[in-house]
């Protein structure tokens, strides 16, 4: 029995070899090609070198560096700004070095006018004090001085009309660009710096408490609506007032360039300001007796 089994196994092995020997040639070719492909996959050629990937650095580290750099730049700018500000404080004359010749001339003229006005007022008060001391009837002299001062204070406070030489400023507004209140008020301030004594904007008497505000329809002065064209009458030195408006880079240039307005300044030997300002009723302030 055992011999017969060995003979059967040998017969099957011989049959398997015969079947393999009888396989088609294309099967052998495919097997050989598959073996060659596996060998090629394990071979590193020199034509395409292996490139190693760079390890990515943590994003947190780059973010910290960016914040540190930004903080350093901000600190440096603050230090430079503080240094420049300190130099400016220690050298106040440097602001005048950047001004043009016309601006310096206007500044000197305005300062001289203010000094002259103060000196004139000082002389008037000194003369009144001396006359009061020398008067036999001090009560009568005091009444005369009070009456004299009442006329001056009435003009300054706007209670009395006034006339004298000065300028008349006409401002025609461009419909596409409305003039704002700050620019108009700057014009009033420039005239004050130039030594103006009495002013009236349209039909409003300009006094120390005068304000100008913006409205949906234009400008308002002391609660009254202003219509265009604007007319500003000013009594004072005509040349100084005219220079204050027409100087290069001044408020007149701003009105023309920024708002497209037409500004015309006319000198006159007789400027009449009949507009008056009603006296304000003070609730808390009282005169000292």
UniProtKB/TrEMBL annotation:
It comes from Bifidobacterium subtile. The lineage of its organism: Bacteria, Bacillati, Actinomycetota, Actinomycetes, Bifidobacteriales. It comes from the Bacteria. Residues 1-60 are annotated as: Disordered. GO terms for cellular component: plasma membrane. Residues 1-41 have a biased composition (Basic and acidic residues). InterPro entries: DUF881. Residues 101-152 form a coiled coil. The chain crosses the membrane at residues 66-87. This is Membrane protein. Keywords: Coiled coil, Membrane, Transmembrane, Transmembrane helix. Belongs to the UPF0749 family.
């Amino acid at each position: 029995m055992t011999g017969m089994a060995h003979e059967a196994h040998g017969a099957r092995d011989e049959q398997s070899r015969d079947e393999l020997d009888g396989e088609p040639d294309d099967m052998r070719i495919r097997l050989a090609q598959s073996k060659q492909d596996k060998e090629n996959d394990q071979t590193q050629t020199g034509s395409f070198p292996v490139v190693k990937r760079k390890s990515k650095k943590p994003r947190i580290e780059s973010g910290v560096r960016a914040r540190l750099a930004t903080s350093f730049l901000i600190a440096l700018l603050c230090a430079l700004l503080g240094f420049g500000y300190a130099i400016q404080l220690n050298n106040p004359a440097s602001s005048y070095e950047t001004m043009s010749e016309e601006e310096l001339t206007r500044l000197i003229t305005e300062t001289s006018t203010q000094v002259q006005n103060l000196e004139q007022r000082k002389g008037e008060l000194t003369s009144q004090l001396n006359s009061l001391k020398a008067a036999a009837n001090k009560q009568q002299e005091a009444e005369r001085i009070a009456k004299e001062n009442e006329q001056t204070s009435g003009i300054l406070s706007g209670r009395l009309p006034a006339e004298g030489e000065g300028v008349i400023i006409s401002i025609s507004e461009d419909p596409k660009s409305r003039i704002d209140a700050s620019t108009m008020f700057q014009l009033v301030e420039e005239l004050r710096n130039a030594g103006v004594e009495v002013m009236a904007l349209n039909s409003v008497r300009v006094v120390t408490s005068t304000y100008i505000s913006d409205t949906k329809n234009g400008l308002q002065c002391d609660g009254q609506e202003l219509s265009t064209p604007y007319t500003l009458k000013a009594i004072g030195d005509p040349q100084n007032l005219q220079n204050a408006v027409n100087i290069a880079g001044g408020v007149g240039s701003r009105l023309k360039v920024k708002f497209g307005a037409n500004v015309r300044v006319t000198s006159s030997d007789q400027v009449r300001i009949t507009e008056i300002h009603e006296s304000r009723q003070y609730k808390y302030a009282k005169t000292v007796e």
